[in-house]
Amino acid sequence: MAHRSLAILLTAAVFAWLPPPGSPAGDQPQWGERFSRNMVSAETGLADRFDPSSGLNIQWSVPLGSQTYSTPVISGGKVLIGTNNNAPRDPRHQGDRGVMMCFDQADGRLVWQLVVPKLEGDIYLDWPRAGICSPATVEGDRVYTVTNRDEVVCLDLDGMADGNDGPFQEEGRHSAPGDQPAMEPGPLDADILWLLDLRSAAGVRPHDSAHSSILLDGDYLYANTSNGLTGRHDRVDKPEAPSLVAVEKASGRLVAVDGAGIGPRIFHSTWSSPALGVVAGRRLVFFCGGDGVVYAFDALDAEQAATASPDGLANKLNLVWRFDCDPTAPKENVHEYIRNRRESPSNIKSMPVFHEGRLYVTVGGDIWWGKRQAWLKCIDAGGEGDITATNLVWSYPLGPHCCSTPAISQGLVYVADCGGQVHCVDAATGKACWVHQAGRDIWASTLVADGKVYIGTRRGDFWILAAGGEKRVIGSVRLDGPVHGTATAAGGVLYVASMERLYAIGR
């Protein structure tokens, strides 16, 4: 039995490290490790200090919009990041827009950009100036992301340089607001291959800003829908709509939905993106709902996808287990607790991270509307049914709120919270090894690479700490604005985005 368990763990570890097909070595083609979501990089030789004012170790830097919440992704010689249109690169696109920019990895030259008009009406559908918040997921020459209009799109990594590939041919119409004529696609425009509008296809109502880091698995992709409250914050507008969808990656066809009935219990919105792992030979998709519950579904197979209804809504992912991260919180009439800072349901904004048969999840009261309490939870990822009472390995208290996804490396868990603290926790026991006060609240997540822990704060301080069980500060630098996205590393270079600028940092 011990040999079988070891084999499962080794298989899962190799599975998590496999690069996506067609992804060059040294790329970072998605958020975190493939499948597991662990933001740990094998890159070495990364800079341990840099200074934008003097140019020390700055290979290049480029302006973005005025608000950047996305994380840079690097693949095939390109760097992709979402932002807004505060400084238009194309004079035809004026005003507030969501933008995904694609830069040349060598020198930061803009290669192409996806420009998306805002959703009209209630500002809570598409928050002003938030831009495109979703990071890209790249496989070969295909880019998958979710726009500010809650559209799952597949883009050509080369943009329009090789022509307007199909079947989608309406880029000019898509990039223009509804009351303006269609534009003629130009060489700086993105090439959309297919598009799935989750508002019409799945009946969802996004809240604040659509956000999803797409999970790719074989022929399918998984995305959270950003379904959430009305603009009055009094109820879920689309309670029957799914929180998680599965889509055929070749065509954009909706194949399946979660079917877990999460909608009525969403406290604010659906923030978390899915992960995948193998437990006892079973491939599971892990998803954290806007109700503070972690769900595990069987990964989609070809037979199930082939029998899907035309709209995909009738086909439900098979629920394997559920784990309530805050079982003593209110479960009835949850929206009566909006704005209650002492007692409220919890939600989950970060991604679940699968590592050696366990899930690591941050959970707690909503930043804007909920109680000031948060935890890092370690969950045994095995079992079936309701595993709340049986599968908690340990729970570690965090600051008043938490948005950050944990990173696990060499038996240690690194995680930040909205109290401005960076925690190093023993993965086996859940005991603190050290805590670093970074000076201001943190929305970004930790990157562990090259023996270092990289993290930025909302004040604009970027910290470099030594990885390991003893606290050691290597250095810090004040950037030009807040850091909301997570640093990434590829090809010996560290990529860090402030609200208004992207930096490529290398020795």
Draw up the topology in text:
Layout: H1 2-17, E1 40-41, E2 58-63, E3 73-75, E4 78-84, E5 97-104, E6 110-117, E7 137-139, E8 142-146, E9 151-156, H2 171-174, E10 192-197, H3 198-201, E11 215-217, E12 220-224, E13 244-248, E14 254-257, E15 275-279, E16 282-288, E17 293-298, H4 302-306, E18 319-324, E19 353-355, E20 358-364, E21 374-380, E22 385-386, E23 392-397, E24 407-409, E25 412-416, E26 421-426, E27 432-437, E28 447-449, E29 452-456, E30 461-466, E31 473-478, E32 488-490, E33 493-497, E34 501-505
Parallel strand pairs: 1-28, 18-22
Antiparallel strand pairs: 2-34, 3-4, 4-5, 5-6, 7-8, 8-9, 9-10, 11-12, 12-13, 13-14, 15-16, 16-17, 17-18, 19-20, 20-21, 21-23, 24-25, 25-26, 26-27, 28-29, 29-30, 30-31, 32-33, 33-34
